[in-house]
Write a structure and sequence with these properties.
Arc Repressor Mutant, subunit A, elongated, 2 domains, DNA-binding, homodimer
DNA sequence: GCACCTCGTGAAAGTAAGTTTCATCCGTGG
DNA sequence: CCACGGATGAAACTTACTTTCACGAGGTGC
């Protein structure tokens, strides 16, 4: 039977549309009408049912099926999902976003959301890229072996410090965080060889944190600094320096992205430490999760 | 009150998978089996027929249909093309990374860093994609006009709550955060019409937070919930629901990505509020920045 | 402890979508 | 004027999708 020129089934993922328009002239009139609809708006075609599309092309379902076969598909459903896939792929409008910059005055919420998310995601990715695994390894090692872990941070970095403390505590490491400088100083004074102190400061210029870290170091503790600026003062009192890569510089942005970058670093260290002793960490996590269980309500679902 | 919180069916093209994983816990067991298959490999699911998928999930076609409806689709074909579209859009991560999953046991630091950063960045991006600007607008409006702002959160979400409080405070809004449930409850009891309460809970099942939010609502305050799961109990006591889109589900990952997603949402709200009154917010930020200036050291650089 | 709900579930009936078959139409060349 | 062959759509057919319904588990109130 006239198995009319079955064009090599383009099994490659892309190029279906191109493929179709390429062999458009070789199609029968009725099939061409279908093809034109498909090429004109693949996404729309994907949404239609075969009868619907046939009607739109002023033809019958049979012709649509024939068209599917002509372009190398098994049947209509297959064409449909391929079209949906391609339509989705080509819709990628990388509208110019304000990279690392301020939010334009007239921006609406949607723009604000897009800009912030973009910058936040960037900060996280770029931080990960420039993080030195070797340094991380040393820090993880130190934390894993430390007798005591002190974590310092002020303001926004204080939240990160606090978060880190809580995480380490949850896997059974003896970690402390002090919101108050005086308490932190006394704690630092009691550190010694085999202990570790981590100072977090976005700018790297927070005198309180630097001071405490210095104290800790003078007592023989290993010191770690987490900052955005690799040459900032805090690095002078640190044995190991980890840096974030948040671009924001203006106070106006309120160091938003930097927090996320700091947290990402904290997460990496945490997972690294936990991975050193899987069994123990897992056990500790299970126990702690269980502990808060009674403070969770069972899922009384909504209608 | 269930009617108050509507599950904004992510009408946009993107975020279906994320949307589904968010709803996962609120689905019935059989539907969850379907959901897991779909989330695990959307492209594959798109290729399957409904009977096929039902068999794979060890359930009936009826359940698959119910699942479609649960996630806001009209029927199976619609789900199918949406899945195909999303699968196509998703850029395959360079090296096979464990998306939303655990870190492989033998991983070295570099792998851990890459995986965490990838998941963190994704959570931020996907959260932004599915955030409903309209709801944000309402919340921003409410916060901007509120007499008093109470923010509740426990555990990891507590840090986020605290961060939010600090941010709002910095631009001159009267905001509070209470680490202690009892204090929070008394504060909530003193709220009234014109005030606003924000409850943050990743799982949406933290009874303490729900309880306090409920109290606030009963006093006439506008209530806002920030959670990863759009049908969790907390949404029942909230006038406005904002959702994050962190995929992690295992407690093992310690809800790491979710924090970042929550912070991104907080940042958006913060900037939104600040943008409402640029002049005043800027002034406040300048003044507060100046206040901590003397706690910064000048750049005595390293040798 | 019983009656009664409600909810999740799959079997089966029902409907719609997709596919095949086949008769018709129409132009072409004998 | 009559085959002939390809294009086409109506209709039969098959498969996929959707709805309905009854059963059973787990809870709730009497």
């Amino acid at each position: 039977m006239a198995k009319s020129a079955k064009i090599s089934a383009s099994h490659e993922t892309g190029g279906l549309i191109v493929h179709i328009s390429g062999l458009l002239p070789s199609l029968s009139p009725a099939e061409q009408r279908v093809a034109r609809l498909v090429v004109a708006d693949p996404a729309d075609a994907a949404r239609r049912t075969i009868t619907d599309l046939a009607t739109a092309a002023e033809t019958s379902e049979a012709t649509v099926i024939r068209f599917c076969r002509s372009v190398g598909m098994d049947g209509y459903p297959q064409l449909r999902i391929r079209l949906a896939a391609e339509a989705a792929r080509r819709v990628e409008p990388p509208d110019a976003r304000v990279v690392g910059g301020d939010i334009p005055p007239g921006a609406d919420l949607a723009q604000i959301i897009a800009t912030i998310a973009f910058n936040d995601a960037r900060a996280v990715e770029e931080t990960a890229e420039q993080l030195d695994p070797a340094v991380c390894e040393q820090v993880v090692e130190a934390i894993g072996n430390a007798g005591r872990i002190d974590i310092y941070g002020a303001g926004a970095s204080g939240f990160v410090a606090s978060d880190f403390q809580q995480k380490l505590h949850r896997i059974g490491r003896t970690a402390f965080y002090f919101p108050d400088v005086h308490t932190a100083l006394t704690s630092a004074a009691l550190l010694g060889r085999g202990d570790i102190a981590v100072g977090i400061s976005h700018t790297g210029t927070t005198s309180d944190v630097i001071e405490v870290l210095e104290q800790a170091r003078s007592r023989g503790a290993v010191t770690v600094a987490l900052t955005n600026f690799p040459r900032s003062p805090i690095t002078e009192v640190a044995d190991h320096v980890l840096t974030t890569a948040a671009r924001e510089t203006t106070y106006r942005s309120g160091a938003m992205a930097s927090r996320l970058a700091q947290l990402t670093v904290v997460d990496c260290l945490f997972v690294g430490v936990a991975a050193r002793n899987r069994a123990r960490a897992r056990k500790a996590l299970e126990v702690t999760a269980e502990a808060v269980q009674q403070h969770r309500v069972t899922n009384r679902r909504k209608a």
